[in-house]
Design a protein that fits this description.
The chain is built from three helices and no strands. The protein is an all-alpha fold.
C-alpha cells in the first residue's frame, strides 16, 4: 500500500525514513531514549515518561525567559478563545 508523500518531498526517490524511531510509542531515536533512561538515576524519575516530563518542564521554564514567548502564549490563548476552543490552564 503506497504511503502519502509529504508535500515538500518532490516526485522522485523514496521518502526518507531516517532515523528509525522507537516502536514503543515514544517518537525518539534509540540514542535519545538511551540517554533519557540513563538520566533516570540523576533525576529521581522511575519511568521514561517521568524523565520526559521533567525535561519538557525545564525547557518550557527556560522558554519563559525568551523575549516574546509569553506574548506569543497570550496571543495564542486569545485566538483559541476567539474560536471557541478551550485554553489549557497553566501549571504555575
Amino acid at each position: 500500500m503506497p504511503t502519502n508523500r509529504p508535500h515538500g518531498a518532490g516526485r522522485r526517490g523514496p521518502v526518507a525514513r531516517e532515523p528509525v524511531l522507537s516502536p514503543t510509542g515514544y517518537r525518539i531515536s534509540e540514542r535519545t531514549k538511551f540517554e533519557l533512561v540513563a538520566a533516570m538515576s540523576y533525576t529521581g524519575a522511575t519511568t521514561l515518561q517521568a524523565v520526559i516530563d521533567i525535561a519538557v518542564a525545564e525547557f518550557l521554564e527556560r522558554m519563559g525567559t525568551t523575549p516574546g514567548y509569553k506574548a506569543t502564549l497570550r496571543t495564542s490563548a486569545a485566538e483559541r478563545l476567539r474560536r471557541g476552543l478551550p485554553v489549557p490552564q497553566s501549571n504555575d
